[in-house]
Amino acid sequence: MNAGIGKVEVKTLEHDHVFLGANHLRNERRIWLVIALTTVMMVAEIAAGTVYGSMALVADGWHMSTHASALLISALAYLFARRQARNPRFTFGTGKLGDLAGFASAIVLALIALLMAWESLLRLSNPVPIGFAQAIAVAVIGLAVNLASASLLAGGGHAAHAHHAHANGHHAHHHGHGSHGDHAHHGETGDNNIRAAYLHVMADALTSVLAIAALTLGSLYGWLWLDPIMGIVGGLVIANWSWSLLKSSGGVLLDLVPEGETLPSEIRQAIETEEDRITDLHVWQVGPGHHAAIVAVVTSQPRDPAFYKGRLSALEELSHVTVEVTRAA
């Protein structure tokens, strides 16, 4: 349809903005399962520690509660994004809610790293007696739970095809009037929400591995100082993970084009010719596997926006496109 001529039926302009990741439901279910597993383990450790007078069990139980709380952020983000996906107040959908949750989880990870390092420094300056056999048993059980949780969450944050077909294709504008194409586009990108949950589980697993190593060597050689040293090392590694997650999720929230992202150049290559030139281009992520773009084209031979959208049909990352066409002076 020529957007600048004749009447445009309202029904042709209706489309939704559901930009959820391909594995949204799967990731949501798995996080709830990991929360249940972590919570059961947490309650069991606190109860056993209280009954048998083991501070090591009680302390590890409460430590697991911090990770369960962080995982709850991810689970609730998936739930809210799914339920509000078609809420018109979210003009570009709820796909970026996972990145907001990932950013919040990264801050929690940073705090955990800081607390680990601080507690380790205190232990280094004021050593306390360690019940090695009991502490090792707790660490081994915790590691087993974390490895099981990690296996459930592994792979969810890597590139995955998005599943939602934009109802009526690309949304385009020609001199301020609407027009729709016929193609739905899907792309590949990381899910920072499931990645955040995975990093929380791996942080706990790393803590358990370092603790087992330090406690084993400490029991054999009496190296009490090794336990807090391992705590500091673990804190630094977790802080590095936190920084990486902060950068990736924060970049999406600020509509930052990541280094190495080729989509803007691919759009230019697809559109620009001797007659057609892009004068303004905005590309941003609106959800895992989904990008939106605003393309302003100046040309000596103006065509309908659908013509330019057709040139972009091979770019599966694009889920929502606005094309503005202006005749060259």
TrEMBL record:
Residues 164-178 have a biased composition (Basic residues). SUPFAM superfamilies: Cation efflux protein transmembrane domain-like. One of its GO terms (cellular component) is membrane. Residues 31-254 form the Cation efflux protein transmembrane domain. Residues 164-187 are annotated as: Disordered. NCBIfam families: CDF, CDF_efflux_DmeF. This is Cation transporter. It comes from Rhizobium esperanzae.
